């Protein structure tokens, strides 16, 4: 068995900068299943103030904004010794090569063009975070019997066959693997996976566990129900 997750996966802080409130709302909603603490800013001056005050782990930065553009913000952050190490992903409706070149020359770590696929953006964020913040001792994978889990790639296989899990299902499985053999109560799972989201009840946990077991096929037997308490992943 590969090393168990002895500690909770770090929740990285992200700053989303975009003058379109609909995009900020969409991204915050889509990021709910991710281990992210999300900050937002609708203009360049606010973005600079937040970065300097709170030092987020990563900035997703729109290029085309009134006032300070994303390129100017990127150049300012990378010129400051206190913020230059914070990775930046540029986000823009423009598809001109000059924007991409300038963004990368100013120090951006990646570039995503609008309209974008949210799942692709999430993968890009994870990729940059993985590259920049390599946490010592963090478990990268888990293997038991026919089941293998790659936490960094968000990949699950059973008998070598890739299993397609939703983000919530993957987060649920990861939570159970934090401490193999120990019971996770429904209350714990509700708090750490849905953040006490309104309308989320214990039966939601039960439904997702059943779907997870079904998708894991033979490996689903490792997920044990502890009646009246919650669930655990059996050794």
Question: How would you portray this structure in words?
Answer:
By secondary structure, the protein is of the alpha/beta class. The protein has 2 domains: 12-132, Rossmann fold, CATH 3.40.50.2300; 141-233, Winged helix-like DNA-binding domain superfamily/Winged helix DNA-binding domain (Arc Repressor Mutant, subunit A, Orthogonal Bundle), CATH 1.10.10. The protein has 8 helices and 12 strands. The protein has helices at 21-30, 44-54, 70-79, 97-105, 118-132, 167-177, 186-193, 202-216; strands at residues 12-17, 36-41, 58-62, 88-92, 110-113, 141-144, 147-150, 155-158, 161-163, 184-185, 223-226, 230-233. The protein has a 5-stranded parallel β-sheet with strand order 2-1-3-4-5, sandwiched between helices. The chain has a 4-stranded antiparallel β-sheet with strand order 6-7-8-9, with no helix packed on it. A 3-stranded antiparallel β-sheet has the order 10-12-11. β4, α4 and β5 form a beta-alpha-beta unit. α6 (167-177) packs across α8. The chain starts with 11 loop residues before the first strand and ends with a strand.
Order of helices and strands: EHEHEHEHEHEEEEHEHHEE
Strand order of the largest sheet: 2-1-3-4-5
Compute the number of strand runs.
12
Helicity range = 25-40%
Rg estimate, integer Å: 20 Å
Count of helical stretches: 8
CATH overall fold name of the largest domain: Rossmann fold
């Amino acid at each position: 068995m590969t090393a168990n997750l002895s500690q909770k996966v770090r929740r990285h802080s992200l700053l989303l900068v975009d003058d379109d409130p609909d995009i900020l709302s969409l991204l915050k909603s889509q990021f709910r299943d991710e281990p992210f603490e999300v900050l937002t800013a609708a203009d360049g001056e606010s973005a600079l103030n937040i970065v300097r005050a709170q030092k987020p782990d990563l900035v997703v930065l729109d290029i085309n904004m009134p006032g300070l553009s994303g390129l100017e913000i990127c150049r300012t952050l990378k010129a400051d010794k206190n913020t230059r190490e914070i990775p930046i992903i540029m986000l823009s409706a423009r598809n001109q090569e000059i924007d991409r070149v300038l963004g990368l020359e100013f120090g951006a770590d990646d570039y995503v063009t609008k309209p974008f696929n949210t799942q692709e953006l999430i993968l890009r964020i994870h990729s940059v975070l993985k590259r920049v913040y390599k946490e010592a001792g963090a478990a990268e994978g888990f293997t038991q019997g026919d089941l293998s889990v790659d936490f960094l790639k968000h990949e699950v296989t059973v008998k070598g066959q890739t299993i397609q899990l939703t983000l919530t299902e993957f987060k649920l499985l990861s939570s159970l693997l934090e401490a193999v053999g120990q019971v996770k109560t429904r209350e714990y799972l509700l708090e750490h996976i849905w953040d006490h989201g309104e309308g989320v009840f214990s039966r939601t946990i039960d439904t997702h566990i059943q779907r997870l077991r079904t998708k894991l096929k033979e490996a689903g037997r490792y997920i044990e129900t502890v009646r009246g308490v919650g669930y655990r992943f059996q050794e």
